[in-house]
Design a protein that fits this description.
Length: 274
């Protein structure tokens, strides 16, 4: 393949969200398919067992990325580990060491949080994207820049707000996390919120709203209405569901709705006093 063809192929992959190699070594899938077909042929009864010379030369397997199969046992393990974390630092350490979620195998960093954990308000998004994965911090890419502008508009910044995500590892190619992956990550964000105990919680977008408010109602109906997040130990936190900044970048006409929600958050925070 010439370099123009290769560039076109890579652009196609990037557009499809395939923008991360999973291994240091490139894989020749055509050759793997051919070898596999030969192997099958050889293993048929009566087949000549001498491997073809080309197959012999290529047969050393690529190092497979170590992956765990997410299952209910991992979700139970996550619940136990998260429950046992007595401080935010302990939770961060436990989460960084946790190996029960497949998403971690392709992520560069565990994205825990940014901002001030003593702030009265905590924002929770969905999952890190490419920039967040590289920097290890939530909301630092384009949607993070919009979030920063929205915070500024109501007199907040990352020293007066705290920011995290439901999922701490970037899903490959920014795909949606599976329900089981979300279930495995759920105890960590729930414990995270419990340890921070913000006076006000803000869920950004559908996934975090559905998970943290335990609802199937979509964000367009939920947004703008105060709801309550109940932590596992029974703490009740006033919660404002609002539109995700990434959604607002795609649908700028809806920024006025988010603005209303942010004004409600500002009023609520002012009402809390100091
Ligand atoms: N979108 C999210 O939900 N979280 C981030 O950290 C970045 C983008």
């Amino acid at each position: 393949m010439d370099s123009a063809g290769l560039r076109e192929l890579l652009t196609f992959y990037a557009d499809a969200g395939v923008d991360e190699p999973l291994s240091e070594t490139p894989a020749n899938r055509f050759e793997e398919t051919r070898i596999e077909a030969e192997r099958r042929k050889e293993s048929r009864p009566g087949a000549d067992r001498t491997p073809a010379p080309a197959a012999k030369a290529q047969a050393s397997p690529r190092a497979a990325p170590s992956a765990v199969v997410p299952d209910d046992a991992q979700a139970a393990r996550a619940r136990e580990i998260a429950r046992g974390a007595e401080t935010l630092e302990a939770l961060r350490e436990q989460l960084t060491a946790f190996d029960g979620c497949n998403l971690k195998t392709t992520a560069k960093n565990t994205v825990f949080a940014d901002g001030n954990p003593a702030a009265p308000v905590m924002f929770v998004g969905e999952a890190p994207g490419r920039d967040e994965d590289i920097q290890g911090l939530p909301f630092v890419g384009r949607s993070g820049q919009l979030l920063d502008r929205m915070l500024t508009a109501i007199g907040l910044d990352r020293s007066s707000a705290y920011i995290s995500n439901v999922i701490p590892w970037r899903p490959p190619g920014n795909r949606d996390p599976s329900p089981l992956e979300t279930e495995i990550c759920r105890p960590f964000i729930e414990r995270h919120i419990e340890l921070v105990a913000p006076k006000v919680l803000v869920t950004l977008g559908n996934p975090s709203t559905k998970l943290l408010l335990n609802t199937q109602t979509g964000i367009m109906r939920m947004r703008g209405n105060w709801a309550v997040h109940r932590t596992p130990s029974g703490l009740e936190i006033p919660t404002m569901p609002t539109l995700h900044p990434a959604y607002l970048l795609r649908n700028p006409a809806h920024k006025k709705l988010a603005w209303r929600d942010f004004l409600a958050i500002k009023l609520k925070l002012e009402g809390l006093g100091d």
